[in-house]
Amino acid sequence: MLCLLGICFSTIAFSQTSVIAVKSHSSDRSEIPNSTDHFGMVAPIPVYDTLIKLKGTCVIQIGSREYSGRFRDTICDHWYYKQHNFSEKKIQEFHGDHVVLINFQKDSSIDTGDDSPNFRSIRRNSSELIFLLLVLIGLGSYVALPKLSSKK
Amino acid sequence: MTLLRWTVGVWIVLFFTFLPFPLEYFPDFGTYLSALFLPLTKAVSGFPDEVLQKTYGFSDSIHLYIQTIALLVISIPIAFFCEKSKYKDRLQSYLTVGVSFIMGFFLLKYGIEKLTRLQFPSPEANILYTPSGQLDKDILFWTTMGTSTVYAWFMGIVEIFCAFLLFIPKTRFIAALTSVGIFVNIFAINIGFDITVKLLAFALLSASLFLVTPNLLRLTQFLIGKPAKPISSCRIQYNNEILHRILKGTAIAFIIIECCIPVFGRLNPPIGNTSLGSYEVLSIEGDAEKLVDGDVRRVHLHRDGYFIIESNKGVFTSHRGTKASSSQSFSFNDNSKIHIAQDDSHWFFESQGETEIKLTCKKLNNALLPAVKDNFHWTVEGMIETK
Fold first, then answer.
1. Pairing relation of β-strands A100-102 and A46-53?
2. Distance between CA atoms of A78 and A9, rounded to whole angstroms?
């Protein structure tokens, strides 16, 4: 059962649908609902090392992805955490002892907070920020082009 | 523009706005918007709530079909309003340019995926050892596509080129025409090989037809040699050139960022993955009976963290675990581990937990398999093996 639940946190490393992903590792089709569909899009495998529960139903997930390095992702209202009532015991059981859990419920009860259920934030690594900067420079040049041409 | 055309255009925009498509750089707003229709799906689909809660964001889920129909119904009054509006010419140009940019996004996204081989990657080790007759059509198609770098690159380049042509008003029609060809093929493949991206492919095909149809009569007249008016290129009229450039440039920048960021960090080779692949089992020590009755022929380490055991009867059993990139051990969710070691000629898989088993294996060089080798021959003579 834990193996099946595990799929919810494992995403497909290569671009394929959940059905093809499940078939690619010769698994049973009953795993399909627990896999993550990406419309054939990229989703690197995340390996978590710290999970921090915020007020309400949000969790900060800190770890690294196989290809793109460190990440810090805040998700809210995730069905897996909700299904286990944010229970420290159950989530620790699934992730293993190497994952540090902070502020999870020892008595499996959900506290009520006022954070937005639609909030999601991801911190980016430096290479992505450099790329972002290059795109913004390109955008600036494109916008400024008519002015530069008219000055000539 | 007729009411039907308005309805199709509005439906396309709504379909992609509410599509739970995974975005890497920007929030998955489609996932949250799509959840608004979940009560409707739960009421009419007949599937258990706990299944729908997990699958509603999936491609070709029942939820996506119900949502699509609901959005089509919603599109009709909006289209009626647009058709009657005094700003309908302006709305029409917004709609056409909006659909072009949506298509540009998807073509660029999938094109980059193909070019970087993230879509259609090289087949997994366990699949290479599964007889083709045992594979379903979808995984067989995916595997076949994964064997050809040249074809993946070709498709990727065509899609990227087409995407950029869609951003330019003068080349928008030829790009839309090309994309009709691309999406007809993709839709036919998804139907023919039962790949679960049928609805998205249909929507993209509809979008490309939406862009092509206004000029179809002129194109036909031109092709049959009759005098034809020039193709009209739809563009939004702005009085302020700088504002136009800011809006268009920002939209293209967003699309480029969203399409490139997910693959950006993944072009580096994975670290510590030298142990992935296939192993032929030479001997088993310990509680061999606990391991598929001791009937183990090969083991395969899958990229997504699966330890797969292949029996002599050709049955594959998959166990999900985690392989830390820096260590040579495979951790399973029940806290058991498999430690991987090697000497000059052998690999050893030793379980550490309640069951003690040691497999002595020989690593198989999957790169030598005919399906993986990128062989190419111009001539049939080149294929004849000389002794």
1. parallel
2. 11
SS3 A71: strand
Q: What is the pLDDT of residues B26-48, one digit of tens each?
A: 777 788 888 889 889 989 988 88
- Residues from chain B that touch A8, judged by Cβ atoms under 8 A, are 54
DSSP secondary structure code for residue A15 in this structure: B
Full 3-state SS string of B177-220: HHHHHHHHHHHHHHHHCCCCCHHHHHHHHHHHHHHHHHHHHHHH
Please tell me the number of Cα atoms within 13 Å of B2 on its side-chain side.
Answer: 6
Contact between A139 and B250 using a beta-carbon 8 Å cutoff: yes
Of B32, B266, B267, the CB nearest to A118: B32
Measured over the CA atoms of residue B219, residue B220, residue B223 and residue B227, the dihedral's sign is negative
B2 interfaces chain A, CB cutoff of 8 Å: no
Per-residue pLDDT of chain A (152 residues; tens, 9 = 90+): 333 333 333 333 345 677 777 777 766 666 676 666 667 665 555 677 888 888 777 888 887 765 556 677 777 766 667 767 788 887 877 676 778 888 887 765 544 444 444 444 455 556 677 777 888 888 888 777 766 666 55
Long-range contact list for B228-233, CB < 8 A, 24+ apart? B231/B173, B233/B169, B233/B170, B233/B172, B233/B173
For residue A44, list chain B residues with Cβ-Cβ distance below 8 A.
262, 265-266
Q: Do B318 and A26 touch (CB under 8 A)?
A: yes
Could you tell me if B96 and B212 are in contact, meaning their C-beta atoms sit under 8 angstroms apart? no
CA B113/CA B156 separation, integer angstroms: 7
Question: Is some CB atom of chain B closer than 8 A to the CB atom of A128?
Answer: yes
Residue B246 has pLDDT above 60, yes or no: yes
- The length of chain B is 387
Which residues in chain B are contacts of A146 at CB distance < 8 A?
A: 241-242, 245
Cα–Cα distance between B125 and B301 in angstroms, integer? 7
Token pair 């179809």 is found at B216
Report yes or no: A108 at the B interface, CB cutoff 8 Å: no
Report yes or no: A106 at the B interface, CB cutoff 8 Å: no
pLDDT tens for residues B117-170?
888 888 888 999 998 898 889 889 999 998 998 999 999 999 999 999 999 988
Phi, psi of A15, rounded to the nearest 5 degrees = -70, 110
* B321 bridge partner residues: B332
Residue B340's pLDDT is: 80
